[in-house]
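Repro:
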Amino acid sequence: MHILMLNYEFPPLGGGGSPVSYEIAKGYVGLGHSVTVVTMAYKDLPGYEIKDGIEIYRVPCWRSKKEICHPWEQLTYILSAKGFLKQHLKNHKYDINHTHFIIPTGIISLWLKKRYNLPYIITSHGSDVPGYNPDRFQLLHKFTGPILRRICENAKIITTPSRYLKDLIEKNIGHYKIAVIPNSSRDFFVENIKKENIIISSGRLLPRKGFHLLIEAFNQINHPDWKLYICGDGPYRKKLEEMARNNRNIIFTGWLNNTEKEYRLLMNKAKIFALLSSFETQGIVFVEAMSAGCAILSSNATACKETVSKDIGYLVNLENKKEIEEKIKEMINRERLLNKFAENSRKRYEKDYTYNNVINQYAKNLNGIS
């Protein structure tokens, strides 16, 4: 099968939806399909390359940051990708279009279906759904309702990584054919790396990600033998660095792509992965941490409680700062408990979130369409 894949976020650009789309594309190739990705150009990234069997075209766009893309920058992707595809499709034919994000990329997919009769499936990642990300897209989504409904109505199927996001689509857009397929992750485990007294947290540095709660708790505990690594960048970084200014055991690494050796090394050294986000579509970083054998500290909000079970760590109430502090203390002071969490975490990854398990679910949907 010849598969066209559209995503304005494709490694090394973007957040959680970026590596997910890469792994799916690589999985399709592994099953014998051909995959062509059309994504955004950025600085000195090559305009064309073949990586892991994936043919990648990067079309000229405005994009100021590697880790985040603003709505007006997304608009340039829509215009540029449509111009590119008008020429590209004169000499290339595809059986299906796998689109990531209902909007902005779904706009291109709807156009392709109307003009070229190319069917499409959509994987929703969260920010494309009204009500999920009010700190960035609340105003934008006031105007996107009609186009969101048209895109979803014309999709062969919509996939989401959690029941939480499926329910949000049904509540705020409409009822369509939706399959819940959890995000997977490549296996981050590296043998012969000794665990250290490290808590790691990663993601875009935004208020909703809860880094400030983690730093507050870590400052209160003030354990001299433990370190907290914050991996990421974003508009909240200066505020967070100010909170951590008197604690030398809090280290900000800046943005680390999950393909980088430093990120993988830190994940394997860490005993605990913590993310106290107020909402997640699933939390791909939890899956990465599970594969590396980390115990997990998470909020009990939205899809976090679907991904993080009580046998691999703790789910905490974000409004209870004392509970956050106490659960971190328990984890760092009870070695046998921490080791059990870590052991169960790795088992959970192998059972539910391996790459082969998830890609086979996507392939089943493709086979049902073809």
